[in-house]
Write the structure tokens for this entry.
Amino acid sequence: MLNWLWLGFFLAAAVAGLARWLVGGDGDVFSAMVAALFDMARLSVEVMVLLFGTLTLWLGLLRIGERAGLVEVLARLLSPLFTRLMPEVPKGHPALGLVTLNFAANALSIDNAATPIGLKAMRELQTLNPSPESASNAQILFLVLNTSGLTVLPVTIFMYRLQQGAPDPTLVFLPILLATSASTLAGLLAVALVQRLRLWDPVVLAWLGGVALLLGGLMALLAGMGAAALAATSTLAGNLALFAVVIAFLLGGALRRVPVYEAFVEGAKQGFEVARDLLPYLVAMLCAIGVLRASGALDFALEGVRAVFGWLGTDTRFVDALPTAFAKPFSGSAARALLIETMQTHGVDSFPALLAAMVQGSTETTFYVLAVYFGAVGIRRARHAVGCALTADLAGILAAIAVCYAFFG
């Protein structure tokens, strides 16, 4: 899928470039496309400089949390919920702990730690699967909730905004939290409807009701604020949450007599290796997106969508963020490149850039996760996994658009 997507970007750019030259007489389009290749290659390296530090920091802190037992505490906290949402998994089965650890890592935006944990969880669930080539209900629920993109601390989004010069990198903290919650809830409801899960179980209702009350109270509080107050609240909440996690990991490690400095360095080494290996993918996707934009192909498609919604009499500012939304289910690297390119083109705090950041933080690479997680255990029949996962993605995108207008419209 990714190979065809990447190749398609270049082929579409080539067709658009030829059309502008042969039909429109614009011979400079090829100079712009070649210049975009080198500009995006340079931008990739600039992004990687900050990415090295960010991944190193968070993987180092996660290692402290693991050795202090803090991540296991999160697992025990959510275990009663998952034992009811996955009734075919025996209570106390190791898969439940791994599933919870995976969600905890995803919520903290530590994707590179979440993936290996998630693969191990899928393997444990496979041991309970009566039909090894067909996804079980528990595996589908795990995958859909994983692809719903639930993120409490979207650290990577803050990092990209910081790298692009945003004065308040955490400005999108609360909007992303609301959008990603909508995506996860939609995914859960879609699976529950198909699998006939008992969402009225007291424990499940307590969890869902608590989250709903929290989000409802948060939205009621924010509804009476002006734009400046909303921005200030989001910035303060984001910074407090980030620093609270850092202090909690460090104090937890110290109280458990973990050598925090040594543990941090041990985990940080993994961050350096992960960031280094990501550079070729970032260069590949940024260059493809840059050429696509320079050729005029992307603008042509967006103008078509803009014309349709303009004819319907609706606001069309959201259209410039749609490339990130369209690419995210297929490729995280493509969506990331489109997000950065949108920030570069329109400004880091422009409406399209803010919306693209929210979409990036509230959805997941559905087809990539499906291929990796199911492929790792030899599952060939995904059953209703794809439909439910795409439902969650669509809900996240629509929620991001609505929340972006509410906060920044």
